[in-house]
Structure formats: C-alpha cells, structure tokens
Amino acid sequence: MATHASRSLWMISALPQALYTRPVSRHLRSLGALRRFSQPPKRLEGPELESSMKELETWTLEEDKGRISKTFTFADFKEAWGFMSMVALAAEQANHHPEWFNVYNRVEVTLNTHDCVPPGLSQKDISLAKKMDVFASKSV
Hints:
The protein has 140 residues and is α+β, with helices and mostly antiparallel strands.
C-alpha cells in the first residue's frame, strides 16, 4: 500500500516539467493568463475614431452604443463557416472575440471592446474588422 508521501511524490512527478521548472509568472504569461491584468485598451474617440472608420467604409458605426457592425454574405454555408473559422483563429490569437450570428450564408458581426472604460471601440476592433474584410475577400 502506498503511503501519503509516496502518492504526493508521484503526483508531483506526473506534472508537466514546465510547471515546476519555469517561473510561475512566465508560465502563466505563456498561457495568456496575465493579459487580463494589463492596462485596458484605449477607447477611440473624436478624430481618432473618424480616421479609423475611414479605413472601414463598409462597416456601420453605432457611436451611441460604441460598436461597429457588418453583415457578410457568402455563396453558401460552407464558405460562411470557413470565414468564421479563420476569424475565430485570429480572434483567439488577439484575445478579442466578436459577437456574431450565422444563418446559412450570412454572418452578422458586431465588434466592441468591453475592456475599455467605458466600453466602446478600440484599436482591437479596427484590427479585427480589417482582418475580417481580408478573410471575406478570400472566400469570394
């Protein structure tokens, strides 16, 4: 019968080596866990918002709600889903996720940054919107 100490030793030896050889903060950072504790993104306002929106002519700005939106239409469901898959990978990498709705060949997207104080548009939204436009043009 194994003793309590030998079971504990086995549990420690079963942990991935990275957990006990790397500094904890570095390990957490590599997992993206510390991103939440960094400075919130800067909210775009005034001339900065206007110049950013010039780059996104096909997006609709709902300034009172602090968001932008667009409806993408594709040939079929497979293309719409492929677009959403590409966006999902980019969004996960940027740690910035869209609000979206999909029916067959249509994808309705709304972007805003909840981390801004108060919530509104940030450079994260502009960057993701540009990527979405590029991905949609590749799908057509």
